[in-house]
UniProtKB/TrEMBL annotation:
InterPro entries attached to this UniProt entry: Bact_Lucif_Oxidored, CmoO-like, Luciferase-like_dom, Luciferase-like_sf
Protein name per its UniProtKB record: Luciferase-like monooxygenase
Gene3D superfamilies (UniProt xref): Luciferase-like domain
Family the entry assigns: To bacterial alkanal monooxygenase alpha and beta chains.
Organism of provenance: Rufibacter latericius
Occurrences of domain Luciferase-like (ranges): 23-299
GO molecular function, one term: oxidoreductase activity, acting on paired donors, with incorporation or reduction of molecular oxygen
GO cellular component terms, semicolon-separated: cytosol
Length: 337
């Protein structure tokens, strides 16, 4: 790949819209993946979330298999597996199996957050907090299980040994930047909801990066919210669903995604609330022309190698159109370099 080109990908949460079923939501996720594949997206990743009526990406490895089985070339992975929720041995077995079924197409992104509330995290693993503190050691266990040298060990994930499953370190603060750099792993930052530490984390990662067998030089990825429509006004209308969803997060509501409405003064005032505005700082909303300018400025500021688009929209058709327009923008930006 030309190092001057910026790759573009999708992070999928399988958001359940009001009136939609989980089955239809997951079918729509597959349709989005097929559209992404047709438009030269590099990868589609599935998040891990629990105890939410509005998010269907709970069994991440199952969704990866579903999408990989029904596509042919796009990379499919986790954005990410929340490692303290899981046994590293089981994760290695699951992703090793996927790698045999879909060679050179499976990514394993690892994070340390629970992907849910504290009570649910305790229900998943009563020792979650201890495991979160041991995250570097848990990542090392994953690496060991994938290593061909582990064939001589007492405990093995034989289906994973020697398989081609790249590891990616996920972060929403500066903590994982140090670990990703130390291990020489690609680094993906969740700037679509955690904008505050993006620039410091990227600087730490690049400064401390140590080359590894899997990666010679730093590789940075950033999540961004993308809402593209024919006009700025229509894109802003689509964006109102995300604003309401995040207000629900703050208030404890777990409702399915609301349909878009007019971008009223009340909604504009909600969006300007310091907490919400900071979380959604890297949201690029508008027509193709408007968003292209925003993306070029973001790429100039961050110099990331890959953008991961998150588009939480009520209408599947609107998401498909936005994904197609985003691909057009990225191709134009890359051609202009």
């Amino acid at each position: 790949m030309d190092t001057n080109k910026t790759a573009y990908s999708i992070l999928e949460l399988a958001i359940v819209s009001q009136g939609n079923t989980i089955k239809q939501t997951l079918n729509d996720s597959l349709a989005l993946a097929k559209e992404a594949e047709a438009n030269d997206y590099k990868r589609i990743w599935f998040a891990e979330h629990h105890n939410s009526d509005s998010i269907a990406s709970s069994a991440t490895s199952l969704l990866i298999g579903y999408v990989a089985e029904n596509t042919t070339s796009i990379r499919v992975g986790s954005g990410g597996i929340m490692l303290p929720n899981h046994s590293p041995l089981i994760v290695a077995e699951q992703f090793g199996t996927l790698a045999h079924l879909y060679p050179s197409r499976i990514d394993l992104g690892l994070g340390r957050a629970p992907g849910t509330d504290q009570a649910t995290a305790q229900a998943i693993r009563s020792d979650f907090m201890q495991l979160a503190q041991r995250f570097p050691q848990e990542v090392a266990r994953i690496q060991q299980y994938f290593s061909p040298e582990n064939k001589k060990a007492t405990v093995r994930a034989s289906v994973a040994e020697g398989t081609d499953v790249p590891l990616y370190m996920l972060g929403s603060s500066t903590d994982s930047a140090h670990l990703a750099a130390k291990k020489g792993l690609p680094y993906a930052f969740a700037s679509h909801f955690a904008s505050t530490h993006l620039l410091p984390a990227l600087e730490i990662y690049r400064r401390e990066f140590q080359p590894s067998e899997s990666l010679e030089r730093p590789y940075t990825m950033a999540g961004v919210n993308v809402y593209i429509a024919d006009t700025d006004e229509e894109a802003e209308r689509l964006f109102t669903s995300l604003i309401r969803m995040f207000v629900g997060v703050f208030t404890g509501a777990r409702d399915p995604l609301h349909p878009p409405t007019e971008y009223t003064e009340d909604l504009k005032e909600m969006f300007q609330h310091p907490s919400l505005h900071q979380m959604l700082k890297y949201s690029f909303v508008g027509s193709k022309e408007t968003v292209k300018k925003q993306l070029k400025a973001f790429l100039s500021q961050t110099q990331v190698k890959e953008l991961i688009a998150v588009s939480t929209m009520y209408s599947h058709e609107s998401r498909i159109k936005s994904a197609r327009l985003f691909a057009e923008i990225m191709k134009e930006i890359n051609e202009e370099r």
